[in-house]
Structure formats: structure tokens, C-alpha cells
Write a structure and sequence with these properties.
alpha/beta; about 130 residues; about 45% helix; Rossmann fold; 5-stranded parallel β-sheet
């Protein structure tokens, strides 16, 4: 399964913010993945002060920390980036677009609270919350 950025932050820092369904899915998952785009989003928004809750993570080697915690960081490949950029979807957040494209490329369920992801309309995208 693939965690979106907020789900990753909550899993690391505030597990109580996750839904019971999300916690159960994460605890029983064969693999827990995150998109490299999430690391970029955390670093960018944290360093700009737009997401103060993640400021402690900005100073870490987050890639290493995630791997130590059992996460696989999936690269934002050329095919993922091309697909994300060309999606026929009104949702403009580039991070969400890359994360959705990553989930579809790797055929992973996406753990996310964001109901806006349901508007993508691809039956292959399974959102867990």
C-alpha cells in the first residue's frame, strides 16, 4: 500500500489521527510504500514554513529514517511524472497527482483521508480511509 503525505506524517508523528481502518490496514500490510514526491513535499513545505508540524522532519535524513522504519520509497519515474502531468483531472495539486500516478503504476491501494482523490475516476485507484 502507498501512503499519501499526510498519512505518512500522521503514521510517524500522530498515529491517533489515522482512522481505525487506516491503522488496521497499515498494521497488516505486506509492504508500506511512500512516493519520493512526499519527501519533496515535506522538505519544501516544511522549509518554507507552510507546514510547521513537519519542521523536525526537514532536518532528518528522511529517506534513511523511512527505510529504517520499514517503508519503501518509490521513485517518481519518468512514466509516473508523464502520467501525472497529463491526467485528465481537475485536481491541480502536483503532489497528489504524482502520488495517485504512483499508486496506479505500482497497483497499490492508497491510504489517504483526502476525498478529493475519489474524483479521479479510475477504478484502479483504491483509497483506504
Amino acid at each position: 500500500m502507498l501512503l499519501d503525505t499526510h498519512t505518512l506524517i500522521w503514521a510517524m508523528m500522530q498515529p491517533g489521527a489515522l482512522s481505525s481502518k487506516a491503522r488496521k490496514a497499515l498494521s497488516g500490510a505486506d509492504g508500506r510504500c511512500v512516493s519520493a514526491a512526499s519527501l519533496y513535499e515535506i522538505a519544501l513545505k516544511g522549509s518554507l514554513g507552510k507546514w510547521p508540524e513537519v519542521s523536525d522532519l526537514v532536518a532528518l535524513d528522511l529517506d534513511k529514517k523511512l527505510r529504517e522504519d520499514g517503508f519503501e520509497v518509490l521513485p517518481a519515474s519518468g512514466s509516473i511524472m508523464h502520467y501525472a502531468g497529463g491526467m485528465d483531472w481537475d485536481h491541480r495539486d502536483p503532489f497528489d497527482r504524482i502520488i495517485v500516478a504512483t499508486a496506479l503504476e505500482h497497483e497499490l491501494a492508497l491510504v489517504s483521508k483526502d476525498k478529493a482523490l475519489d474524483t479521479f475516476g479510475d477504478e484502479g485507484l483504491k483509497r483506504i480511509w
